[in-house]
Amino acid sequence: MPRQARLDFPGTLHHAICRGIEKRKIVTDDQDRDTFVKRLGQTATETGTIIYAWALMTNHAHIFLRSGTKGISQFMRKLLTGYAVTYNRRYDRHGYLFQNRYKSIICEEEPYFLELVRYIHLNPMRVGLVFTLDELDRYPYCGHSILMGMHSQKWQDRDYVLGRFGATERKAKREYRKFIEAGIGQGRRLELVGGGLIRSAGGWAQVISMRRKKETGFSDERILGSGKFVEKMVSEAEERQKKMFSGSRAEIVEEVLKSVCDKEGVQISELKGGSRRRIISQIRMKISHQLIEGHGIPMATVAREVGVTTSALSKMMKKTRTKS
Known about the structure:
about 325 residues; alpha+beta; Chromosomal Replication Initiator Protein Dnaa, Chain: A; 2 domains; about 60% helix; about 10% strand
């Protein structure tokens, strides 16, 4: 089954997961970890990406972010490519370091924001890099220690997260830590990292309930959120895609018209004006063939651009095919 296109809207919450190729290490020692974290911060600053939570493991990393104006793709490409070059140079290795396609899940802010912060920040405990909450408080390769004030990273939006727990920093840190502690026993949560319907429904219990009631839910593997949120995101993605395709189509038409007319020494205005001069008709057919057969532009669009009706262009194209 072909993979779906990535959803990439500027200003959108994403849970991004990047893994080492074939589950291999992406960091070997603290120097590698420091390099990764430094590059994470630099790339976030350069691309206007806001980081709320993150955790660096041995063979993968989790990043909870709000994408900048260029979307998540630019941020992740710069981060992973730049780090891989440095890592390969250090160890005199060649080839890919990360899996070709990082995973990114668009997230509905409520009720998932804090759940994702907690889930991501508990990853070092979940995989055994640290064993107690006290150790996690001081662990420098996870955003939890920044929220607890044990380490400082200006590029992590500490205030936005802590602001959800209290008006003063002291109270916010205390309540946040209680919230983290309450999630230690939850383990791997399928509703946060599992299939699309599980995410959209809010967990397996809700999915089973829906099946018993013979209800259906709108879901998508790329989105963590309610059915309405998923439907909204998919709809917006389709609309953006149409606009992008429309824009690229217009550029192709303009480029072909200009190129052929310049080469033949005629004015585009004469072509579009419906001139029946023999040379114009020949150029019109040349352009139409390039746009329709070479670029897949719809005949109705081409006809409008070359100054004839769709039916007239259709007849001309048929005559040309018959002769050939």
